[in-house]
Please model this.
Amino acid sequence: FTTAAKHLRVARSLLARVENFWLNGMTAIADFCVAYLSSDLDTAHAHAQRALHTVSTSGHARTRLAALINLGHIYVKKGDSRLATDYFNDAWKLCEISPRCRDNVLDGFAQVALAQKDFARCDALIEQLRECESPELSYVRVWSFHTQLRSLIAQQRWIEACQTGEVAIARAREAGDRALVRLLHILRAEARIELGDISDAAVDVVQAAAPQDEPPLEVLAEIHRVIGKALRRENDPVGARVAFQRSARILHGIGHLGAKEEVEAEIAALGGGSAIASRKPRGAAPFVRAADAAEARADLVLRQAAALMEQAGRPDLLSSEVLALVM
Model:
């Protein structure tokens, strides 16, 4: 997103010389996308509000529609289902001017239903979205697989999750969405762990943590969460707790409070076991051995996370990791 952000800075500097509320609104929407996909929810929220503010002067209905949808997605991440639903309801009323935006709102409603554990409604909304006429590789249709996979996993439908993950990863690759490919690999790893397929789950984690480009912080949080699940299954609750705690710290730092609560529930479910009380089986855990072979050990992921946090200008997240290491 570095190149996109650079172009947007140039655009803003040019617009500062000319009063054009319509273009300012469109630029704010683009700024939102870069911030949101970079896991910077506070900045994304500010850009969405800025876009909405321009509409009071420009009167551009499509900018208002996009801003409402974007604000809905922000509040889904923040764990505020009521506000998210309000924004999606307002957006739904405007969808006649842009039928394709219905897909975005439907996926938003599905995410709210998932957060409320209304799985039947979530699955029905995804099916409704798939019946729409938008292109197969459009952003929202491809990303709807992420919502669907999360729903299947929450329902413990592990085999269906693996099957859906196969299709979803292929579609995301075809669409060229690397961030989504990473998230889908993590979700499939989670399903494979529950099925006892630790070695293939490790391959998925390695794919998600591939070093060729820097993953968003949300992806790093998800990697730690799934590593925690693998270690818990391998009878290492102490290691699992550490991985879950790292995930929760990152999620807190980027404002993904709904996901943070889910990870904290995983920590609570581990109970108050100690390092002495819990012993790993003889030899290294299969998950760790498989991940070692592909250079994806948890400590390597942590170093990558710390480097990325520093480069992303998030000293708050980096300091929390350093504090955890020395305590």
